[in-house]
Amino acid sequence: LVALYEGLEMALCTEEEQSEDYLFKVVLIGDSAVGKSNLLARFARDEFYPNSKSTIGVEFQTQKMDINGKEVKAQIWDTAGQERFRRAVTSAYYRGAVGALLVYDISRRQTFDDIGRWLNELHTHSDMNVVTILVGNKSDLKDLREVSTAEGKALAEAQGLFFIETSALDSSNVAAAFQTVVIEIYNILSRKVI
Ligand code: GDP
Ligand code: MG
C-alpha cells in the first residue's frame, strides 16, 4: 500500500508540473476484439462501431471527469491493435499508468482464461500497484454467455480487483467502469494529502 501511494504521488507530481489539474493515465488491456476500443468510444464520444477494425486511430483520449466537484482528467490509452499481432503491448504503453481496465468478453471463455497473463504483464511493466478493474464486456450477448458473473466476481476478489460487467453496445455500466478506477485513484491521493 505504501508503494502504491508513493507511485501515485510520483505520477501526480509529474503531471502537476504541466498543469494544476489532476491527470491520471489509465490503460485498456485485454485480448483482441473484447471491445476495448468500443468501451473508450462509448465513454468518450458516446459512439459504437458494429464492425470495428483493430485500429480506430487514436492512441489515447483525454476525458474530463467531475469527482467531488473537482475536475479530473483521465488520459485513457487504447492499444490500437498491437495485441492482435503480439498478444502483448510495449512497456511504454504501461509507463506512468495509475489505473487499468482489464477487459474480457463474457461470450468468449478464452478471453477470460487469458486474464492472468494480462495481469502478469501489467505487474511486470508497472512499478506500482495500479488501480485495476476487471471488466466483463458484451453483457448484452446473454444467449452467448460463456463466463458467469459469479466467475468474474470470484476472480476479481481473488486478485484484489474491482469488478463490473459492461456493454459498449447498449452503454450499460460503461461510465461506471472508468469512474470506479478514477474515483479510487483520486480517493487514495486525497487521503494521502490529508
Ligand atoms: P478491441 O480489439 O478490444 O478494441 O475490440 P473492439 O472495440 O474493436 O470490438 C471488437 C468487436 O466487438 C467489434 O465488432 C465491436 O462492434 C464488438 N463489440 C464491442 N463491444 C461490444 C459489446 O458490448 N457488445 C457487443 N455485442 N459487441 C461489442
Ligand atoms: Mg481496439
TrEMBL record:
Keywords from the UniProt entry: GTP-binding, Lipoprotein, Membrane, Nucleotide-binding, Prenylation, Transmembrane, Transmembrane helix
Any one Gene Ontology molecular-function term assigned to this protein's record: GTP binding
The principal localisation class reads membrane
Q: Domain of life here?
A: Eukaryota
GO CC term (a single one)? endomembrane system
Q: Quick one: signal sequence residues?
A: none
Name assigned to this protein: Ras-related protein RABA5a
Organism from which the protein derives? Camellia sinensis var. sinensis
Which lineage ranks, top first, belong to the organism behind this chain?
Eukaryota, Viridiplantae, Streptophyta, Embryophyta, Tracheophyta
Q: Which residues of the full protein are shown?
A: 198 to 391 of 440
